Amino acid sequence: MTDSTEPEAVPLVIDGVLDLHAFRPGEVKDLVADYLGECRGRGILALRIIHGKGSGALRRTVHAVLARDPRVATFRLANETAGGWGATLVDLRPPGDRRW
Fold it and tell me: How many domains are there within the chain?
């Protein structure tokens, strides 16, 4: 029996694709930052973060986190084949990069 007030844990695969649809907006800032670190630690430097199209609030939150993180070399909205403006592509700096 589980306590209905506790959110159910969402399994997270570290493969360079983070789909935020399963998470609450309040979890996104820490989740994205942690995911960047996990990917970088595993040598995954090209990521796709799926935030959806919606109102754009989640996209703005994701972009704000990425803009402040020194591990991020570049980020941009995906092209149509990778999710269009419902996803963001991220390039991380390699672990030996001195800027981090």
Answer: 1
Full residue range of the structural domain in which residue 29 is found? 24-47+56-71
Q: Is residue 1 part of a domain?
A: no
Instruction: Assess if residue 38 is contained within a domain.
Output: yes
Q: Which two tokens stand for residue 6?
A: 């506790």
**CA 43, CA 39: separation in Å to the nearest integer?**
6
Instruction: Tell me if 5 is assigned to some domain.
Output: no
pLDDT (tens digit per residue) in 8-66: 666 788 999 999 998 999 999 999 999 999 999 999 999 999 999 988 899 999 999 99
Question: What are 84's two structure tokens?
Answer: 């269009």
In the Cβ-directed half-sphere of 53, how many Cα atoms lie within 13 Å?
A: 5
Asked if pLDDT for residue 3 goes beyond 60, the answer is no
Contact between residue 36 and residue 64 where contact means Cβ atoms under 8 Å apart: no
Please report where in the chains the tokens 């090209």 appear, as a residue.
Answer: 46
Burial of 86 (0-12, 13-18, 19+ CB in 10 A): middle
